[in-house]
Amino acid sequence: MVRVTTTDRRAALRAGAGLVAAAGGLAAGCAEPGATAPHTRPPRPSARPPAPGPRRFPRHPAQITHGPRDHPRVALTFHGAGDPATARSLLGVAERHGARVTVLAVGTWLDEHPELARRILDGGHDLGNHTHRHLDVNAMSEAEAHAEITECAERLKRLTGSIGTWFRPSRAARASPLVERLARTAGYPHVLSYDVDSLDFTSPGPDAVTGNVMGGIRGGSIVSLHFGYADTVAALPAVLEELDHRGLRAVTTTELLS
User: What single DSSP character describes residue 66?
Assistant: First the structure.
């Protein structure tokens, strides 16, 4: 009989451990191409591309109030401010219905809720500039108005890589000649106005909001609506259903004009 000593046992254990390690290395070396080894960190996703920027539409004026009247499409545009929960509700209603909208965001609102910029874009909607503080931009000096436009543009650029697709003046349906020029200098070839006002900001009730929209809407219309109002959330399903009945489709302003 061969006597096995403690030293012999330790040597055998060390040899066995070496065989296990070698087998593990061989298995890893024989793995299929592209297989991920255990504990390998997955690659980081690539950065998102910049959001779409402003476009020039040569057949349309500097201040746009509506799109082509001979196509069955309309643009629902929302002033981006107010309770973020209301904004998310409105976006969700539109998306479940297959509609796309345009949001003109206020700069201070983006400061408070920066995640909403990407939420809007990820839903397939247009995102634009509605000045930084939503004051009467037409009544401001040139320096003040310039700051209102460019500060919001800078926030959009920082959050999305783009200054946004559109500019709409605050507290006014149309821009003054000065504000129109400043917007163009900031990179916006057009000022976005509208031909249908929902008056939802007066809180007239959802039926009145629906009536205000449907009373004046037709092919090519651009409608003014607002985030932040319960009447708008309540009215939007009826508005979208009535648009369907009339054969009109709600699209982004970019699509409306393209």
Answer: B
- 107-162 pLDDT, tens digit per residue, is 999 999 999 999 999 999 999 999 999 999 999 999 999 999 999 999 999 999 99
Bridge partners for 257 per DSSP: none
- Angle of the 230-245 helix axis to the 206-216 helix axis, nearest 10: 40
Q: What is the pLDDT of residues 207-242, one digit of tens each?
A: 999 999 999 999 999 999 999 999 999 999 999 999
CA distances to 10, 11, 12 from 6, rounded to whole Å, are: 6, 9, 10
How confident is residue 49, by pLDDT bands cut at 50, 70 and 90? confident
Residue 201: CB atoms within 10 A of its CB come to: 17
Nearest to 222 by CA among 83, 90, 63, 89: 63
Q: How confident is the model at residue 258 (pLDDT cuts 50, 70, 90)?
A: very high
- On the question of pLDDT at 40 being above 70, the answer is no
Angle, alpha carbons 215-129-62 (nearest 5°): 70
Q: Extract the runs of DSSP E, i.e. beta strands, from the chain.
A: 63-64, 73-80, 102-105, 126-129, 191-192, 196-197, 222-226, 249-251
- Dmax (CA) for the chain in angstroms is 109
Taken in order 181, 183, 189, 194, the sign of the CA dihedral is negative
Gap between the Cα atoms of 63 and 46, Å rounded:
37
